[in-house]
Specification:
By secondary structure, this protein is α+β, with helices and mostly antiparallel strands. Helices cover about 40% and strands about 30% of the residues. The protein has a single domain, classed as Alpha-Beta Plaits. An eight-stranded antiparallel beta barrel has the order 1-3-2-8-5-7-6-4, surrounded by four helices. The radius of gyration is 22 Å and the shape is globular.
């Protein structure tokens, strides 16, 4: 009887472990994300926005691309930044190929550059969403917020520690100070970069929110603890953004 009871308990333990593993796996976002930055020729940003608004975003969806968000740069003129999502790298390749070969897109593209090309340079970063991020929870929100795109370059072998600090402390403290978590990603092929986007009620509130956050005793304690074995961040780039009228996140 004892042998039977022990086996039952063992089987229950195995089933429970499988259930936990399954739930954990289902919460991991297997999609890949692409952060694209378009540098326009002088005075061509309005024309580029018009092309995206009236044609590109709809054609992206037609070819299996998921529109996440579109922003203009507050400090740099003629810059458009946006994020797309794909099921995987192969799907991304197929989507871009079918999009560029679409006769509708080719017609739109040619018509848009009658008075000269719109874009002079494109930067692209392929990213994986980290486990503590949930960018899809923010889609289709129409709040007219202000945004910051922040890129952290860590010191050697410090990305794991930085992610741990964000996971356990930073992302939980941000909302307390009026900073909304939008999305967090690690670029593929990089072991020292974290890219994330946060939102604020408006542009004026940005400074107050950051000041309140950095002076929070709980944050100071978490930061101090995290750098006991050396500084985590080597360089931080902050870019303030404004969502376009056609952005899926506002």
């Amino acid at each position: 009887m004892n042998f039977f009871n022990k086996n039952i308990k063992f089987l229950i333990l195995i089933l429970f472990t499988i259930m936990l593993t399954s739930c954990s796996s289902s919460n991991i976002d297997s999609k890949i994300y692409e952060l694209r930055t378009y540098y326009c020729h002088d005075g061509k940003l309005d024309d580029l926005n018009s092309r995206f608004r009236n044609h590109t975003v709809k054609l992206f969806e037609k070819h299996g691309m998921e529109n996440i968000g579109y922003w203009t740069h507050n400090e740099k003129e003629d810059v458009l930044i946006y994020v797309l999502a794909f099921p995987d790298l192969e799907a991304r390749k197929k989507s871009w190929t079918s999009f560029t070969q679409d006769p509708v897109w080719q017609k739109v593209f040619e018509a848009s550059k009658v008075d000269g090309p719109l874009v002079k340079e494109i930067d692209s970063v392929i990213m994986d969403q980290v486990d503590y991020s949930n960018v899809h929870a923010n889609l289709n929100e129409n709040k007219n917020r202000s945004f910051s795109l922040r890129t952290y370059y860590t010191n050697e072998n410090k990305l794991v520690d930085l992610n741990s600090r964000f996971r356990n402390h930073t992302t939980k403290l941000f909302p307390k100070h009026g900073i909304e978590n939008i999305g967090y990603w690690v670029p593929q092929g990089e072991d020292n970069m974290l890219i994330y986007i946060v939102a604020f009620e408006n542009e004026k509130s940005m400074g107050k929110s950051w000041e309140s956050f950095v002076n929070d005793p709980e944050w100071k304690k978490a930061k101090s603890k995290s750098i006991e074995n050396g500084m985590l961040v080597d360089k931080l780039i902050n870019e303030n953004l404004t969502p376009t009228d056609y952005s899926y996140i506002k």
